[in-house]
């Protein structure tokens, strides 16, 4: 039987840290449907209940618990391409959160980043920077703060300054007990378009690599500014990731 997890590592150039993380999610599962571009499986011990990943090459993978498959009547379907799969979820009232783009560095881009000396001008923020960090947060909109999720108590935090003012910050935390480091970045509106966000992303990603972590950059599909930033920072699209909506998951597990 075809091992569909090979889709995650073929012709990508991404690190094994990233590909192995996603392979572990989709491996050891029972095949419901599989063809050249679509794979749907079930897995009993899946905490999220349901997860999908579409690779940058357009290959769609879905894994869900057997109970969720029964609820969506997937076991009764002789053909399950992606569109049909999504229709079955909708009919069963199973909502998805809304997909994120997921970006990583390729090996070539990673080596270039590690050799970039100018990034050392940006510094890590610590608890001693609480006052200036709070001023930056106070000047940001609630929407920007919610979307960025930048916190001073995260595993790593970097700041970019305009004179004495903190113009922007990026923070990271280990993702799902793995060696992936998920990042967020926030730049105050008056300082956008000046390169602060790009330098922040590259500086904190370089730090993560030096500490043995693989940087992970995520953003919503309609966040065009964030997508442009990912490319400007040298990241490459890995795929589109989605999962069951949190409020629905709470209902079925509560």
UniProtKB/TrEMBL annotation:
Pfam family, one: Acetyltransf_1
Signal peptide residues on this chain, from the entry's feature table: none
Spans traversing the lipid bilayer: none
GO molecular function, one term: acyltransferase activity, transferring groups other than amino-acyl groups
Designated name of the protein: GNAT family N-acetyltransferase
